[in-house]
Amino acid sequence: MAYHIALLVHLLAFATASGTAALVHFAEHRRNHGATVGEVLQWHGLMGKTARVFPFALLVLILSGGYMVSAGGMWSWSFAWVRAALTGAVLIGICGGMIGGRARKDAAKLVEAARANASSHIIPPLDRVVDALAWCNTATAIAVASIMTIKPGLTGCVAFLVAGYVVGLSIGLKPAKRAAAVSMESAA
């Protein structure tokens, strides 16, 4: 019974992290296409507030997964897929810390620009590494879920994790295109 409760908690934490990632990526898209400093700052703020869920979800995933490996009787810490899942979780946590620090610097630039003129269409350049790492984390989480489902050997586990990072980087490093500012004269 306790194993099944831990599994439920594990799945709920994964669902929470997945939903949060969807909202963060939506806000990221809106931020990258914002027309004014104020609009970009608003979406950037939503990203930051929403992302606060990730450390807690990650901790619950690690603790519930660790419990299931230790108490379940059928799994072992020596299995490649167990170690790969834990490695993926650690990588996600490290990237999350890097994202937080870099995103706070972007927020400071945006706040400064908004104080000068929130309706300005001159947006300070934002750190593209934040987007790339966020997508790396999402793709790595999908890779970890795949590893836990398929339970491949060491080579398969490494392939999934590497593929997750490569896919995440390719999505996250795509150039953001700002929406063209529409003047009041052309809208009339």
Overall helicity: over 70%
Q: Can you count the beta strands? A: 0
The main β sheet shows up as: none
Q: How much is the radius of gyration in Å?
A: 20 Å
Per DSSP, the total helix count is 7
| Class by alpha and beta content | mainly alpha
Order of helices and strands: HHHHHHH
Please state roughly what percent of the residues sit in beta strands, choosing from under 5%, 5-15%, 15-25%, 25-35%, 35-45% or over 45%: under 5%
Whole-number mean pLDDT: 89
Return residue spans where pLDDT drops below 50 for at least 5 consecutive residues.
180-188
Plain-language structure description:
It is a single chain. This protein is mostly helical. It is 79% helix and 0% strand. It contains seven helices and no strands. The C terminus is likely disordered.
